[in-house]
Automatic annotation (TrEMBL):
GO terms for molecular function: DNA binding. Pfam families: PemK_toxin (PF02452). Gene3D superfamilies: 2.30.30.110. InterPro entries: PemK-like, Plasmid_toxin/cell-grow_inhib. This is Uncharacterized protein. It comes from the Bacteria.
């Protein structure tokens, strides 16, 4: 499968240069995020905008936060934690793909995750290390 690195690099330059966009966000939010075309088995964004939903795990500042990509893949293992229905599809948090992002990558708010599920995901992430 060929990845569209050149298209992603063009969009990434636009995202990076937009100094006016600085979204407000909160932990437990599920938002669309422009993750891009990544290397190997790293979670990619899909479609025209190279995006996928992510769970905001921890905020560090207005500029950076820790996120967990979500997937509709129905794998059953310790790295895929079910989160329920997200944008009309059953989803799971891929805790092995936790990553720090610039908040310029975030856009449309989808919703806020249930506190108990969020706490379970945080514990699972802590147990990874």
């Amino acid at each position: 499968m060929d990845k569209e690195f050149d298209k992603w690099n063009g969009l990434k330059k636009e995202i990076h240069s937009n100094d006016e966009y600085l979204p407000l966000y909160h932990e437990r939010q599920i938002r669309w995020c422009r993750l891009g075309a990544n290397v190997g088995f790293e979670q990619d964004g899909t479609g025209k905008g190279f995006s996928r939903p992510v769970l905001i795990l921890k905020g560090f500042s207005r500029h950076v936060c820790l996120v967990i990509p979500l997937t509709t893949s129905a794998k059953k293992n310790m790295y895929h934690i079910p989160v329920g229905v997200v944008d009309s599809q059953r989803a799971a948090a891929v805790i092995s793909q936790v990553r720090l992002i610039d908040t310029k990558r975030l856009y449309k708010l989808i919703g806020t995750l249930d506190k108990k599920i969020f706490d379970d995901i945080r514990k699972a992430v802590k147990n990874l290390i």
